[in-house]
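Our working data are protein records whose layout never changes between entries. An example says more than a description, so a record of this kind follows.
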Amino acid sequence: MLLDLKIALASLTAHKLRAVLAMLGVFLGALSFNGVEHVAAAMYKNAQAEADKLGPGLFAVMAGQVRFTRNSGAARFSGGVRTFTVPDAQALAAGVPSVLAYAPYVSTTMPVRTGATTVTTQILATYPSYQDIRSYHPRHGRFLSETDVLDMEKVVVVGSKIAERLFGNAEAALGREVLIFRARFTVVGVMEAKGRDLTGADQDEQTFMPLSTYMRRAANQTWISGVYLQLAEGTDLDQVRAAAGDIMRQRHHLYGKKDDFSLLTPADSMQLRKEALDLVQTLGTITSTISFAVGGMGILSIMVLMVQARRMEIGVRRAVGGTRGHITRQFLLEAGIMAGAGGALGVTASLGLVTIVCAVAGFPYVLDPVFSVGTLVGSVLLGLAAGAYPANQAAHIEILDVLKF
């Protein structure tokens, strides 16, 4: 066995170009297969972290129908729905089982200006309970208070990115004034950095104001965008869905008609995001499998050529005592070494690319040594399978035919 290994290594060293060409396909297959699986795992982990950011026990009832895009999982809302009101939110808080707190809200996009600087931000008008329901708190200053809502105060709390774009840094924003709806609002707080949630909204680009201020003093409207409900731990979500749906349909007289609202939990949005990721992972796996198949065919074809080109070598080795088993092992070892080397290089390169992708995209880094080792073992097995036919051909070359030639 050791002699067969030495001969196989010597042969590969003598035919470097052929060996490299045979390794290339397996290298690309291992690179794409291992890379796709690790990036997908990092995306799943990131999606789970985003779901956790939405807050514990969160249940949302939103105006209009929510649709998630297939490629990214970002949310799209049907527009023009003005049937959801604050009394609807209060009825949900009173009628849905196990509600600990609720926060109706209005979401819109508006420019915010200070001096010569203007930025477009998502205005989120809501109640003080929002920060606890969504587990999202100020880093500097304070959040909205009950007094702000009762007195319709013109105060805002800005996201970390909005503070930096308007004032240069978060601390400098406190006590400053901004113009919204041509009215002056005082900044009383700057939120902690949070990132995007599962609906695709960048929470660091939001500006918060009292709901009453927005609805009465700014926009003069009676409808809201939805309500966030915080549920007690262990609440049966099926019961919550049924109760919320019945309350909304009864209040909006929707029995027999299409719903003008959506019910959403972190698990729902997480599932929709997973469906999008599953599609990406499936396509990546198919592509990787094709690459592996091409790599196997490459080893097979090159090994067949090598057998034909080395008939004299094989005949001489048989003539000096080499058995068919020795010849078979030699060529199988050559195929396995080429595939294993290509797989090892592919796995190593894929881990480097995964590290770069995770760093650039901000995904949590995921390393699955079992999967990486499995990819390497699969590469070796692929090489052995591809080399079986050429090895059998080499073992059955007749000594007399070679010597006569």
Notes: The longest helix spans residues 266-309. The mean pLDDT is 84. The two ends are 29 Å apart (CA to CA).
